[in-house]
Fold this sequence. Notes:
Strand order of the largest sheet: 2-1-3-4-5
Order of helices and strands: EHEHEHEHEHHEHEHEEHEHEEEHHEH
CATH class of the largest domain: Alpha Beta
CATH topology of the largest domain: Rossmann fold
Structural class: alpha/beta
Largest sheet: 5 strands, parallel
Number of strands: 14
Number of helices: 13
Distance between the termini: 48 Å
Number of domains: 2
Radius of gyration: 24 Å
CATH superfamily of the largest domain: P-loop containing nucleotide triphosphate hydrolases
Amino acid sequence: MNKPILIIDDEATIRESLSDIIEDEGFSTLTASTAEEGLELVETENVALVLLDIWLGDGMDGLTALKRIKDRLDIPVIMISGHGNIETAVQAIQDGAHDFIEKPLSYEKVILSVANGLRYARLEHENRLLRERSVEKAKLTGESVRIASLRRQIEMVAPTDAWVLITGEHGTGKELVAQAIHRLSTSADQPMIEVNCTAIPEELIESELFGHVKGSFTGAQSNKRGKFDLASGGILFLDEIGDMSLKTQAKILRILQEQKFERFGGSRTIKVNVRVLAATNKNLEEEIEKGNLRADLYYRLNVVPIHLPCLAERTEDIPELVAELMQRVKEKG
Length: 333
């Protein structure tokens, strides 16, 4: 499903006209009559592009809203004006606008500008992925029977939508397995959103995972999208899942079951489509017996289990691991 295009204009007829034009091309739209309402949508929705009027009545003007959008997100913004002049256009472009179109709106000009903006965003995204992939990726080293079996498991499960529970001792490469699954998955063109469940204080984990609304707690000066929201359409990697509190486990279970949630301090329900990879160094069945882990959460995550062997179980890989380590030390000087 395409990300929506946001239209911010104080004239209802313009909002309706632009929505009709864009939806005729197969895109979905969101609309706002003020900059403030538009900024709220930018922060809470996964918007592909913004059409923003410069003159917006008595509230915040479009140029100010443009700066706030560009400060927060790298998405194309097309400015609209019925009182355009060269100075305003130049100022908008300097502030980060992708294009500038004037009223009365031309169907062809709107479609061309939107298409160019989306193409630019797609190329920027592809370039960013290429830069990320140009950095040497850590790999699963070894040719032992256990590592060969592990590679086959990854190759089989990666192209599916199945959730995976990765278990193994500290240092066995659980994150490497998650990265490998992501690279071979159908959502490899989207970033994998990673959450280290042990690194987030208990009082902040709800905000981190689900996001929050402005004013929901001291220091919440603006709305914030959470990890589940950011991962929608792609993969969320929950590392050290066994260290979450029972309270947070209950909230995560609901999202996993229903694929929807509310931000901390908010009431609006947000729907997502997330594939979850989880990892832990604990024996989760023992954690269930101790009362530290919900059994229903375990069964929800443990769709495809992958267990990583410790080094003592694949000693034949040690020479290759040592050689790789020495090569890295040599390259770093």
